[in-house]
Amino acid sequence: MSDNSNPDPKPDFAxxxxxxxxxxxxxxxxxxxAQEGGAGPELLAARVAExxxxxxxLTDRLLRAxxxxxxxxxxxxxxxxxxxxxxxxxxxxxxVGVGDNFQRAIAAVPAGAAERDPxxxxxxxxxxxxxxxxxxxxxxxxxxxxxxxxxxxxxHFHQAMMEQHNAEVPAGTVVQVYQPGYSIEDRVLRPAMVVxxxxxxxxxxxxxxxxxxxxxxDNAPGPSV
Length: 225
Prior knowledge:
The protein folds into 3 domains: 16-87; 89-141; 144-225, Nucleotide Exchange Factor Grpe, Chain A, domain 2, CATH 2.30.22.10. The chain has a 3-stranded antiparallel β-sheet. The chain contains 5 helices and 6 strands. It is elongated and about 110 Å long. The chain has helices at 21-35, 41-86, 89-107, 113-116, 118-140, and strands at 143-146, 158-165, 174-179, 181-184, 187-190, 192-198. The protein is of the alpha+beta class. Mean pLDDT is 80; it is low at 5-20 and 208-216.
């Protein structure tokens, strides 16, 4: 008795919906048409051009996807570095106020008073030692004090409270510091509040092209005296 069962049918490539299925189906259709004599050179050339255009489009998409992934990776690395460098910014803004209080305590002692009173001298030395240790701890974490007396005014690091006529120093020199500033790594944590000289000789050119960040401060010179 003969087996009337049909052999396994061949795969229907026309229904292939996998990646590249449309291109493969079209290519096989063009090949069959050429073999049957139903396709001329013009049709084949058109089909080849169509496939080349599809390949170019897919290649461009792949390259753009790779470029976007690379940019995302670089941004993530920069964000990770910035987070590590500036994670203590908020805490540092609060703690630098402690340094201001140490300075006020030291400045409140009249000149020569500590030499006449051994107890006051010991207290003053203890406050100065504590202040130095605080600054050392801050520096170990990337926070540095900005005390620019005698330096040229730099709007990226100094906030001018007023101008003072002083012909003995170059114009634009910081002649008084109301409050020292602080920086964290390459950013300004708090600009120094200063008095700037005017009326003196023309200062040397200072490069102020700096990308340091100062938020919420107007650093232009203030009222003149």
